[in-house]
Amino acid sequence: MATVVGAVTRAVAAIHQSQQSLTVPSCTSVAASRAVSSQSSRSGHDLARGYSSGAFFASESLHSFVARPANGHQQRRGSCFVVHADADYYATLGVNKNDSKADIKSAYRKLARQFHPDVNKDPGAEQKFKDISNAYEVLSDDEKRSIYDRFGEAGLKGQGAGAGDYNNPFDLFESLFGGMGGMSGKGGSPRNRPQQGDDERYDLTLDFKDAIFGVAKDIKVTRLDSCNTCSGSGAKAGTTPSQCSTCGGQGQVLTTAQTPLGMFQQVATCPSCNGSGEISTPCSTCRGDGRVRTTKRISLKVPAGVDSGSRLRVRSEGNAGRKGGPPGDLYVFIDVKSDPELKRDGTNIYVSAKISYIDAILGTTVKVPTVDGPVDLKIPAGIQPGSSLVMAKRGVPVMGKTNLRGDQLVRVVVQIPNKLSKEERKLVEELAEISKPEVAAAR
């Protein structure tokens, strides 16, 4: 029995020694060009040409690979290459490519809480937090996500969309969590820093033709503007804010309670400073908010071709930001009145023209309404009821391309009289007798 155990022990030791002898030598790192994610499969095949089937060994990083040349290629002994590929945003967040925006947001919130530098003090936590934020910023935006799915990081840089809309990952974090007491990455309360103002909405009703050809409108918008008395600080003139002693300037306090399941901690807004992190004498005009509600007249140029549901964006005309932050935007939502005669469908206009059965047989010219005014339309002889005639480029201008217009389609409605006079009936009967041979021949 001892002999068997000894043999096994020696075999295990030999295997361990052989594994140590197979350790891959230190490699010379080679900076590889960042590959487009949609071409990653093709790039992998190109890289693998000339290498043995077992030439790739995964390293600790998900997107780093070690490539070793096959025996048939001349290469300095003991050397190797390290190839770094682009980051996989889906893998960074731990989601699948087909997951919804809600799933991506949920994954980001979970990981952001876990790796926020104010909570996680491990080395590399801050970089992990930035990677998570960068991945979420791209995948939460439909346009950026589409570009990334097709072209990878190189596509985002080519479109100038790699940097995102946030100054740093901490702003992105706070846009979802609203600040978490010290988890700002900058120290102090997030509410005490400049914050961008909210967007404002205005509903505008337009006449039918004003929407088609565009119009200039003066609108009155009620919004929050920076307080002139305190210059937006919220503090009474001549006073200086002091740090809140209750929360230490964090704006939030941590409470701890013992439960049967263990210690339970909860973060709540500081009751002393209401989350600002500072104690100050409030401005009498704005009552400490730093903003006052005012009404402003704005000159708005409505482009040609808008329709009900169109939305116009007026930059920096929304509510003022807190603590001197930039203002939001004004969004003008368009509603267009209907026309009793003209019906719109996209860039085309539809209208009906009524003619008598005699005019349908002989042909005629009628006046039809258009967005440009009444226009003469020639009805060809023998037109069939329900036929449509096209009036080219009499429709709605294409928004942003006023030199392009849709068409107007005129549906011909043939009116048949309910009653005929004796003379009319006699003439119609004579016409019917004349037409009988032609009808029989056609059959």
TrEMBL record:
Highest taxon listed in the record's lineage: Eukaryota
Database matches in SUPFAM superfamilies: Chaperone J-domain, DnaJ/Hsp40 cysteine-rich domain, HSP40/DnaJ peptide-binding domain
CR-type Zn finger ranges: 214-295
This protein's record includes keyword Repeat: yes
Cell location: Plastid, Chloroplast
InterPro entries per the UniProt record, alphabetical: DnaJ, DnaJ_C, DnaJ_domain, DnaJ_domain_CS, HSP40/DnaJ_pept-bd, HSP_DnaJ_Cys-rich_dom, HSP_DnaJ_Cys-rich_dom_sf, J_dom_sf
Pfam families in the cross-refs: DnaJ, DnaJ_C, DnaJ_CXXCXGXG
Domain J: 88-152
Keywords, sorted A to Z: Chaperone, Chloroplast, Metal-binding, Plastid, Repeat, Transit peptide, Zinc, Zinc-finger
GO molecular function terms attached to this record: ATP binding; heat shock protein binding; unfolded protein binding; zinc ion binding
Main location: plastid
Family: Belongs to the DnaJ family.
Protein name: Uncharacterized protein
Originating species: Ceratodon purpureus
